[in-house]
Amino acid sequence: MFVKCIGALCILSASMWWSNLQIAKLKARVQQLEAFRLGLRLLAAEVGYTATPLPRALGQVAKQTEAEGVSAFFHVVSHNLQEEKFSDAAAAWLAAVETMRGRLQLEAKDWMVLSRAAAGLGGLGRDDQLKQLAATEALLAAHAAEAAANFTGSEKMWRYLGVLSGMAVVILLL
Amino acid sequence: MVKDWRKHILPFLPPPVQSILTALEPAAVCRVEEIRLRAGQPLILETNEGEIFLGPEGLVADPGPAYRVTREDLHQILLQMTEFSLYARDEELKRGYLALPGGHRAGFAGRVVLEQGQVKLLRDLNSINLRLAREVKGAALGLLPHVYCREKKRVRHTLIVSAPQAGKTTMLRDLARLLSDGDERSGRPGFKVGIVDERSELAGCYQGKPQLDVGMRTDVLDGCPKAEGMMMLVRSMSPQVVVTDELGRPEDVQAVEEVVNTGASVLTTAHAYNVRELIRRPSLAYLLENGLFERVIILSRRQGPGTIEMTYAGTSLAEWLQTEEGNVC
After folding, report:
1. A56 or B289, which is more confident
2. From B155's CA, which of A19, A101, B60, B135 has a CA 20 to 30 Å away?
3. What domain range is A82 assigned to?
4. Does B84 contact A125 at a Cβ distance shorter than 8 Å?
5. B196 contacts: CB under 8 Å, gap ≥ 6
6. How many distinct structural domains can be found in chain A?
């Protein structure tokens, strides 16, 4: 009996851990999208106020962005540009998208927006560059709002699902 | 003494051009004044003795075997010079040039994008001209007695006139340095010099720092329109000598007049082959008529850049023209 109880507890814990993991992923997507928005606003400030060149501007953004994966993204683009392995800033940005794709909780449509941000990066005048960054930020804001709504709506569902599915498995096994 | 410009210029160039220029003989390196890169055309060096075509094997006699510059080369050079960030240098690009380390400059030509009649951006580049800064210390020693009045220990209002590439800017830069540093042995004091360097040619500022020696008491306002810059300097830095290049627009002339009234001396230059050509420009003629310049110095490159052809003293245009009639063809 004691062994059965331990087994049931293990099953319940595992199912709750799995549900929490799903919740954490949803939450991380919201946080990462918000961090990207903040990063793009910081980058716009570097472009607009001090006209800092991209390698240094992206390095500054990486330092000021708290979300680890997002900070790493900006750092990778900055590094790519400093290493001069890429023909232009767009190629360096897209390479960073590929590098970081598996490490962040973003969805394919989020990555598509980020990939589109590469177009014209570093190849435009100041006003146009700011418009381009603002457009990307606006798209990410829409995605972040959708992700936040999704998180709010799904959090309870995943929590109940975790507990109930664990209990269902325990009952079936008993 | 001409420094090796390659350490400043090569990092911006594509690998094939880098290797061609790296292999260049030191004697040729010293003679180079400009590097001309035009899409689909041969790589050309402009030297003080004429053009040189460059191929993968080095100097070539005719354009046939010379290295052909590609549009991609030009694009890459622009990206390297702007650190992949056109927006960071767009104000300079609108004026058609970029200042580079070492005081060198890159001029650009291509398709101009206009917005409300103003230049917004240069794109689809078709040529780049790398103009190498030539800092010739001591070049202006011959001009100094005309510019500096030993008795009154002051600098005369001076206009240096020449055709392009006859050494005006080099002379003006060296004059600024000589006046700023002073000379204890001859009793010439050091003056507070303010330079308004609208196109980063005089001090060759790169990221705000002068790359060329303009003297220890010199303040440089880089990238600022001349007229505004002169007044800013007078208000903020109290210069004894205001130096600026290529006078021409009516507002510049007005600013010169105001600076002169503050008690500072003005050293400046203008494009013209001779005096007759100079006085055809109404704004400059006005300054001369009013006796604003105490010295007008005409340069040519007859015996190399910076050859002093003529100096005119006098405070009125009439007096000056009398002098001219006897001396100028």
Report:
1. A56
2. B135
3. 33-154
4. no
5. B221, B224, B226, B229, B230, B233, B242, B243, B244
6. 1
The confidence band for B329, taking pLDDT boundaries of 50, 70 and 90, is very low
Searching chain B, which residue's CA lies closest to the CA of residue A89? B84
* A54 neighbourhood in chain B, CB within 8 Å: 83-85, 88
* Chain A contacts in chain B segment 28-87 (CB below 8 A): 76, 79-80, 82-87
Encoded amino acid at A12, one letter: L
Sequence ranges of chain B with CATH classification 3.30.450: 6-131
d(C-alpha B245, C-alpha B174), whole Å: 13
Q: Is A111 inside any structural domain?
A: yes
CATH of B6-131, one of 3.40.1350, 3.40.630, 3.30.450, 1.10.1670: 3.30.450
- Residue A4's Cβ-count burial label (10 Å; 0-12, 13-18, 19+) is exposed
pLDDT in tens, B188-216: 999 999 999 998 889 999 888 999 999 99
Contacting B with CB below 8 Å, chain A residues are: 47, 51-57, 81, 84, 87-89, 92, 122-126, 128-129
Average pLDDT, chain B: 88
Which chain A residues have a beta carbon less than 8 Å from that of B80?
A: 84
Does some domain include residue A128?
A: yes
Contact B162, B300 (CB under 8 A): yes
pLDDT digits (tens, 9 = 90+) for B8-59: 999 999 999 999 999 988 888 888 989 999 999 999 999 888 899 999 888 8
